[in-house]
Amino acid sequence: MPTEKGVLTVTGNVYTAYTCEEESFKITEAIDLLIRMAETVTQTTQISTDQLKLPEQEMLRKNTKSKEHKEVQLVDGSLEKTALIGANLDPK
To answer: What are the residue ranges spanned by the domains of the chain?
Structure first.
């Protein structure tokens, strides 16, 4: 490169340039991740707690209808807390 005092020679180290560029990419990714995390926290605080609750799923039950057994709920309204009793028991 020509200058007033003669030719200017610029030298560099390819390994150092590559390492510097690699670090700058890592820093950029970290900053991007931090920004997305902050946005997610902000959006989460704007959602009502009713929308954050997971819906409850009913447990799959086997078909227990038979003449020998009767299924009885142990707790009213709770389909997962049941017991099988003999259907032909004496009422006493």
So the answer is: 2-50
